Amino acid sequence: MKFPQSRYAPLRAGVQAPWGACDNHAHDLRGRNTRQGRAAEPGPLVQYFKDDATAFNAEKKATIEGKGVLNNRLSEFFMTGLNHIGVPTHFLKRLNMREQLVRSCEIIPLEIIVRNFAAGSMSKRLGIEEGTALPGPFVEYCYKDDKLGDPLVTEEHIAAFGWASQQDMDDILSLALRVNDYMSGLMYGVGIKLVDFKIEIGRVYDGDFQRLIVADEISPDSCRLWDMETGEKLDKDVFRRDLGSLTDAYTEVAKRLGVMPKTSGHTKPTLIN
């Protein structure tokens, strides 16, 4: 089976459909096109992790061999851990080296960013030195639209344009902070500082009841991860800023977390099944 160039692919062959700003695609298990964020039909979807790397709203692009394999396994590791502590996610199971089975959900058109230290766009906007510790977790929201540059928005914008209700926002904040607590502790235990991360949230319906779950992925693509002793970057900033090998950085994270065996010498990713 030849996979399409997208993070989501069918279990069976089917015609691709656009997925919006992230250029992601999804198909149900019967090969029908679905689109999370547009009242997706119930039923599991197959999520495919590609080797493409993009930055600056796709102005910088590259294909990095092995990146998708690493992100698939790391996202599985994080999502499974969250499920175990009672934080609901879309993750059901890993199918193979590049695919996961995930629950269909209606994606809220927001990127939720949790910051523990100043970095990236926050440092540029506010003139704060990167690495400055914040007094507590800062939660920011961006409207998901690559054409607009995923602009930062306020809760007033979100309410005014109907992207999420007040109850949704309360639940989103609670989920984001719980993910932060889990991820911060996990990374601290292996000598990594969780600077910030981005998540997406989806709606699922159980009869007449709605609940929110963590969706998309959690991986070094969506986190800033710095070595606690050296400050070495172990995340997508390696690609954004041309700091070295992205797969080496992601492999280091996987090894510290026990997702990959700690072998001597450099080899291509070989993940534990």
Provide the CATH topology of the domain at 107-245: D-amino Acid Aminotransferase, Chain A, domain 1
Q: How can the largest sheet be summarized?
A: 7 strands, antiparallel
Structural class per helix/strand content?
alpha+beta
Radius of gyration over alpha carbons?
A: 18 Å
What percent of residues are in strands?
Answer: 25-35%
C-alpha termini separation: 21 Å
Q: pLDDT average, as an integer?
A: 85
Number of helices: 6
The CATH class assignment of the domain at 107-245 is: Alpha Beta
| Counted beta strands | 14
How much helicity do the residues have? 25-40%
List SSEs in N-to-C order: EEEEEHEEEEHEEHHEEEHH
Approximate shape: globular
CATH architecture of the domain at 107-245: 2-Layer Sandwich
Low-confidence stretches: 1-25, 30-40
Task: Give keywords.
273 residues; 7-stranded antiparallel sheet; 14 strands; disordered N terminus; 6 helices; D-amino Acid Aminotransferase, Chain A, domain 1; single chain; alpha+beta; 3-stranded antiparallel sheet
In words, what does this structure look like?
The protein is α+β, with helices and mostly antiparallel strands and 273 residues long. It has a domain at 107-245: D-amino Acid Aminotransferase, Chain A, domain 1, CATH 3.30.470. It has six helices and 14 strands. The strands form four sheets. Strands 8, 9, 10, 11, 12, 13 and 14 form a seven-stranded antiparallel sheet that branches. It is globular, with a radius of gyration of 18 Å. The two termini are 21 Å apart.
